[in-house]
Design goal:
Elements (H helix, E strand, L loop, with lengths): L1 H9 L3 H23 L2 H18 L9 H18 L23 H14 L3 H12 L4 H8 L3 H23 L14
Helix pairs in contact: 1-2, 2-3, 2-4, 2-6, 3-4, 4-7, 5-8, 6-8, 7-8
């Protein structure tokens, strides 16, 4: 069905394109949010991707490759949004350990928040490969096609991204030493 809609949209059929937009908006937004970690930026990137899809759909040679092609346009839109340098809309302050309840019913929320902060510390390149690989379950060859990089570059980015994510998580778990308890070393 998508192939038919793509073919019709390539001929300028606005209703077919509207159907494609409705059918693929959620998946594209999910990827954009995974890469950008900001709802508003993800919405802008998704909207830009759909504008680009409409603008360039006639250049798509094989309607069966629409999904990968649309991911490529989306990732480019995400990079453009990130370059605009608009700060994120939300900020979260870390709670001290002694605030947690004995039952620690909030642990899953705290874990998700910690992961979110660590993921936000990764570069866009690293976030993109992690989202495409682990959120969408793409193969390295599919990721290479979407990002327009070599398969080896995908493996290289994954090899660097996972330890970087682990390091960011570990750094986040270290509690800072309060200034009042630090011992200064005499010169």
């Amino acid at each position: 069905m998508d192939h038919e809609l793509v073919a019709l949209a390539q001929q300028g059929d606005q209703r077919a394109f509207e159907s494609l937009t409705l059918a693929h908006h959620t998946r594209l937004f999910r990827v954009a949010h995974g890469i950008l970690r900001d709802r508003h930026l993800a919405e802008d990137a998704t909207q830009q991707a759909f504008l680009d899809i409409w603008r360039y759909i006639r250049r798509l040679r094989d309607p069966a490759k629409f999904n990968g092609w649309s991911y490529r346009l989306l990732v480019h839109a995400c990079y453009a949004e990130a370059r605009r340098g608009r700060p994120g809309t939300g900020s979260v302050e870390a709670l001290t350990q002694d605030v947690a309840a004995p039952f620690d019913a909030y642990r899953p929320v705290a874990d998700r928040d910690q992961l979110e902060r660590a993921f936000g510390r990764l570069s866009l390149d690293h976030r993109a490969v992690i989202v495409l690989r682990h959120l969408l379950g793409m193969t390295p060859d599919e990721i290479a096609d979407v990002l327009d990089i070599s398969r080896e570059a995908v493996y290289s980015r994954l090899r660097r991204a996972v330890p970087a994510l682990r390091a960011a998580l570990e750094a986040d778990t270290r509690t800072p030493i309060p200034a009042s308890t630090r011992q200064e070393v005499a010169p």
